[in-house]
Write a structure and sequence with these properties.
With 88 residues, the chain is mainly alpha-helical. The chain has a domain at 2-49. Helices cover 27% and strands 0% of the residues. It contains three helices and no strands. It has helices spanning 2-7, 31-38, 57-66. The longest helix has 10 residues, at 57-66.
Length: 88
């Protein structure tokens, strides 16, 4: 991110889009979280509604994680947008 910001010309604008509830970075740093915490620059938030005709299990489980509740990892009985795949 440091190299990217150095490369952006002074007269350019940089738009960063991300999910405030995103999982932490796998590598070093937490670029989006650090940018939000710094309060530098303008920020806005928007919410995406649930898909028509049902609830997204990704969203349901994301809310559970944010509330400190373990997500439902059982195999879904019907088609779903959330599947837990156990791996070594």
């Amino acid at each position: 991110m440091h190299a990217l910001l150095k490369a952006v010309p002074d007269k350019a604008a940089l738009l960063v889009v991300g999910d405030v509830d995103q999982l932490p970075s796998v590598g070093p740093g937490q670029v989006l979280a650090d940018m939000i915490a710094s309060a530098a620059g303008a920020r806005d938030a928007f919410d995406r509604g649930l898909p028509p005709g049902g609830q997204s299990q990704v969203i349901v489980n994301a809310h559970r994680i944010n509330q400190g509740i373990i997500p439902d990892l059982r195999k879904p009985e019907a088609e779903s947008d959330f599947y837990f795949v156990e791996a070594d």
